[in-house]
Predict the structure.
Amino acid sequence: MTRGAFRPRLLAPGPVEVPPAVLEALARPVEHHRSPAFVATFARARRRLADVMAVPGDDVLIVTGSGTAGFEAALATAVPRGGTVLALVGGKFGARWAAMAEALGHPVVRVSAPPGGDFDIAVVAERLRATADLAAVTVVHSETSTGVLHDVEAVAAVVRRERPEALVIVDAVTSLAAAELRPREWGLDAVVSGSQKGVMTPPGLAFVWLSERAWAPAVRPAAYYLDLRRERPQQARGQTAYTPAVSLVTGLDVALGMLLEEGPDAVRRRRAALNEALLAAGVALGMSRFAARPSPAVAALAVPAGVSAPDVVRAARARGATLAGGQDELAPTLLRPSLLGYADRYDAVAAAQLLEDALRDVVPATPVGVAVPAALRALDAMA
Amino acid sequence: MTRGAFRPRLLAPGPVEVPPAVLEALARPVEHHRSPAFVATFARARRRLADVMAVPGDDVLIVTGSGTAGFEAALATAVPRGGTVLALVGGKFGARWAAMAEALGHPVVRVSAPPGGDFDIAVVAERLRATADLAAVTVVHSETSTGVLHDVEAVAAVVRRERPEALVIVDAVTSLAAAELRPREWGLDAVVSGSQKGVMTPPGLAFVWLSERAWAPAVRPAAYYLDLRRERPQQARGQTAYTPAVSLVTGLDVALGMLLEEGPDAVRRRRAALNEALLAAGVALGMSRFAARPSPAVAALAVPAGVSAPDVVRAARARGATLAGGQDELAPTLLRPSLLGYADRYDAVAAAQLLEDALRDVVPATPVGVAVPAALRALDAMA
């Protein structure tokens, strides 16, 4: 209890609440990364990760670094130097990958989505046809800044139809283990995620899957640590090219075991229901759904006119909770509660009440007792 | 107890034994990286790190990644694109930085040291004078593969004299909090270290200090995650550009507090004595010191003729210990025990006995009861 009588709560789309069994694993004595015990843990974590990423049996590489490091590893390893990148920009993370591709020396063409909206596939098709030397398309699956689940299946289909030679590189940082993603069936070439989101482990690890053609020989990138061709042969034999964050890998292995025991489909259904409960609670409180196609990983809610979202965030903090607000130009109006981590029906009930209480702290006329019933109706409708 | 009646022990130069208080910190509920509580922890860890790195008050950046990521961040941020790098190669890590500089597009000139020896400063001076477009010199302080503590002060002095415009970039991954390093007084431009060595935290964090001239405006590198000019303004206000490994930072803060409480000078004296004890135990067992100028971070010992070092490593493993062997061409003959982590006089006694027992498992004629007395004599001589 660090703040009054409230315990700390994470209501943010990462870092998320981590199961006690994972925290316990982090506190185990550190194993040497070349020891047989850790090599076995690392290999099992990679197998489990491939199952959770719906690419069973494939090489998924674990990189010590943030999701940003993972995305750069995918770009650096798979996209030929100087090739043009078509970047689909629906929010802050889509914009980051466009800026990153420019930093790596690629000409970048941007296609925008309206705030809270998805991409217009006809516009994407037109840009695909018009872009010379196209090497890759980047797209965010769950755009955490807007709460939109972008239709990656449709994007991949239009790329396959219009420019089959272009690689499709997907940011699945917050969508992994929350929204369905079928890398093989949809014809993706790179999927990147991270530890501190749906796989409910602390931050510090990134995951990268590449299609076989993305691994095809190319000029080596002007990179070393994030050049995955240095990592792949090592990880194939349970090693890593550089010392990995062994404690985080040990925790990840435990968390993945829990997710696989519950079953990936059940995990996704649970998270979709919890997220609907958050959205329903917000709507009952006079907020509005910001995302046309909401991600199950984060509930983007626009506060009622005249209310300051940062004030609600501060009120939630006084009640122990880290409630995510909007980023950059969306900061004044957006709230982004999330139960992406270790959370169940009763955490949704608690979060709904906390949202109501925090809003009432800011707007005393907020109705009493509306958020929890709305959340429960949403949960029951999705049961 | 995972193997018979022995408990696991790390006798390797990283990852090292981590104090229970640090492991406990890792198991705390994850804090959001933008929360006031974590921002305060991060800022304190950076201040403490600057003290431990002997650059009090300076900006030391914490990067989520291995020490290799940290070294690449230093090269990418500080060395102008295309400038020539003079790489001092005394072993595996020196060779890695030369290969990395080449991967980043720099022409590289190598100066070698003989196995187990230091660099010939006259040769370094000659190469400094002969190298056109020299931008930077890379040097490893404690070369973990050979156990040599390279004379970075002398290297920096000759660079300052012969080519004052060149940056001096130092790998202090295993030397931090073990050997004295004075970045300002010696005129260094970059110092890189990592969490899993002398600061006795699990792996996953790298630390980078740059001199003011290394930060001077330049063409941005063809890098994003490891371009520290993106990180510096964020970290100056307690934030990070990308989600950091919050659990590891929390543990690091605890570990740094312990090191500062003991006092950096006392920590270095303790580690030098423990390392001398390991070397003395090995010599008493018929092994020989491999390093002409031994690093206090690792005891490089060549096994007696006819003995297989990997056999001794396996015998130690059967007794619960991860005893580091030699790398690459030094694997058949070298052992590299280390007590760089959380270790005291009695850990040195235990390690000496374990070394003796493991050698006797391989060479039954190994004398009885010689290692511990030799270790104790070394400890007492350095008290």
